[in-house]
Amino acid sequence: MTRYVTFTHYKGCVSIPENYSSLVSQLIHARSGRRLSQEELAHRIGCSQSLIHKWETMKRVPSGFMLTCWLDALEYEILVIRKREV
Fold first, then answer.
1. Which of 21, 61, 62, 82 is paired with 4 by a 20 to 30 Å CA distance?
2. What is the pTM of this model?
3. Domain spans, the chain
């Protein structure tokens, strides 16, 4: 399922792929499992708590660098796999 979100600096909706939505859910679960607050996670990454909240509610999408910081702070990594050939 594709989710559509409106960002204030865009004119229109931006689609968020299902796999990104799943990734965010996993990161929220990982943070909760480690009993980290959004504020504690933000401190580890070096950003504000409100930014973590916006990422977790998919009101904002982190840059590639900030996504890797988010993953690193939770001791996660992404495995890149090529999609099946059509």
1. 82
2. 0.78
3. 3-73
Give the whole-angstrom CA distance, residue 29 versus residue 74: 10
Question: For 5-53, how does the pLDDT look when each residue is reduced to its tens digit (9 = 90+)?
Answer: 555 555 666 677 788 899 999 999 999 999 999 999 999 999 999 999 9
Tokens of 79: 């495995």
At 8, which amino acid appears? T
Whether 26 contacts 79, CB under 8 Å? no
> According to DSSP H, which parts of the chain are helical?
18-33, 38-45, 49-56, 64-73
Fold of 3-73: 434 Repressor (Amino-terminal Domain) (1.10.260)
